[in-house]
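A further point concerns the way the authors explain their paired sequence and structure data. Since the whole study asks how a given chain folds, the encoding of that fold should be made plain. A single example would do more here than another paragraph of explanation. An entry of this sort, consisting of the sequence and the corresponding backbone structure tokens, reads as follows:

_____
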Amino acid sequence: MDPEKTYQHLEELAEKAGISIRYEALKGSEYGVRSGLCRIKGKNIYIMDTSQGLPERIAALSKCLAGIDLEGIYVVPAVRELLARARS
């Protein structure tokens, strides 16, 4: 599966799991902020650094989703394999 399609599936999976993705330019931040999952006003939000390339975005979002309970949510086989690798 091509990287753009993979990332699209990861975005959709995050949405189904109740996680909103917010895109922010974090490069050069004086606080050393990175992409990651946080909870704001009771909602799960994944802040994605727009300065990262697509492979880094895929790896970061895969790592996040690998730690989430996805029971009852259909996961495309290629993405399921990606999440399994991210868990180990």
Summary: The beta strands are 19-24, 36-40, 43-49. Residues 3-87 form one domain. The chain has a mean pLDDT of 91. The CA atoms of residues 38 and 45 lie 5 Å apart.
